[in-house]
Amino acid sequence: xxxxxxxMYLVDMASTKGHVGMLNGxxxxxKVRSEFITCSNDGTVRMWDVAIPxxxxxxxxxxxxxxxxxxxxxxxxxxxxxxxxxPCQDGTIQLWDIKKPFIRGHGYLDxxxxxxxxxxxHRDDTLKLWDLRNFKRPVNVxxxxxxxxxxxxxxxxxxxxMVVTSQxxxxxxxxxxxxxDRENFDIITEMNCGxxxxxxxxxxxKLNQIIVGLANGDAKVFFSxxxxxxxxxxxxxxxxxxxxxxxxxxxxxxxxxxxKT
Length: 261
What we know:
Blueprint: E1 23-28, E2 35-40, E3 44-49, E4 58-61, E5 76-77, E6 83-87, E7 93-97, E8 107-109, E9 117-122, E10 126-131, E11 140-143, E12 154-156, E13 162-167, E14 175-181, E15 187-194, E16 198-203, E17 210-214, E18 219-222, H1 233-236
């Protein structure tokens, strides 16, 4: 499917049928299989239904504390599908309750940029863990995580015991994923992803597989033969079928030359 593009000449972004700027991210609703959200440089997050690609079903317009438009750099749902979260370019993280009118955000974290706990990767080379019941200060902070891009990512493990984050590198170095303990943010291990910065990562809670997007355009899937389920394993373990050669009955003709006697 392809979602419709909005009218770029309309001032009110809620009046357009779709986005009018570059897309920065998308995320499926974990509870409603046909719904997903997208965020864009037009300063909105739009909700879509795969059965209705010609118009969004809802739109959230992002505003800073002084009322000006701000741009969400990525977007995500909470695991129960009740909240939408998006870090913005003005240095805020905004939370919205999808069951309430999109007039005022459910939560608002000021002076920071990119379950009751949420983790966000910030442009000051830190990873912060937040408690949604207390926005005054983060629960844990990990620093020294190099971040050259505004779309760097982080995610919880399926059992919520670890946090994984992608890490940018300079040209010629290998990108990697960094795994941290959720309780104290100690580094558990690091995993090499190839000769490019690891930008986006997703740890699927059911498949128990990690999908990574690299700066060179590659996408990689990491899985465990013992602990992962379905997904990439379906095509990896499948044996290649042997091609049977058809049985052909050949009628060989022998050409002889007849001599006169």
